[in-house]
Task: inverse folding
């Protein structure tokens, strides 16, 4: 099971039902998510709790929440594939995502890292205008190759290590 900890702002925008996080799952299967405005659109950022690997979906609309689980899995898979991670490792990770639980945020460190990543995206986004696709893989790759001071490493490298590559 994947757990996505959502900010209050995201719960207000989405139809997600908040559940209690009473499971002691590995932090590798827990993510934080937030909604933010940029380029006159609502956008979502997802960040893995352990590795700080993240991806941003640009131009999110209410209709995207209807098949949200599929959207999350598809976007995550595309970004991992772009990092050169073999399909076998991606499928192994995604197979544990048979269901997604939505909880409230609890880790201020992850929230701080997400805020930093959004600020970095503000500097980088001009090179990608106009954004045609919701999942801008090149921009996400660049974000994931930015060092996270708290972890003293890069999110893309940490994700590969966690997946056993």
Result:
């Amino acid at each position: 099971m994947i757990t996505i900890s959502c900010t209050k702002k995201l719960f207000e925008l989405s139809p997600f039902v908040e559940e209690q996080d009473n499971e002691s799952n590995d932090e590798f299967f827990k993510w934080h998510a937030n909604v933010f405005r940029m380029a006159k659109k609502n956008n979502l950022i997802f960040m893995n709790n352990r590795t700080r690997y993240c991806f941003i979906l640009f131009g999110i609309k209410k209709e995207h929440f209807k098949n949200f689980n599929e959207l999350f899995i598809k976007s995550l898979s595309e970004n991992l594939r772009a990092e050169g991670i073999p399909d076998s490792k991606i499928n192994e990770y995604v197979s544990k995502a048979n269901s997604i639980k939505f909880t409230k945020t609890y880790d201020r460190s992850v929230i701080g890292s997400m805020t930093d990543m959004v600020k970095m995206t503000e500097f980088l986004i001009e090179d990608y205008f106009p954004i045609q696709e919701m999942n801008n893989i090149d921009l996400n790759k660049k974000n994931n190759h930015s060092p996270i001071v708290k972890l003293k490493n890069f999110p893309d490298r940490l994700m590969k290590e966690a997946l056993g590559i």
The longest strand covers residues 30-38. The chain has a mean pLDDT of 90. The chain is about 40% helix and 20% strand.
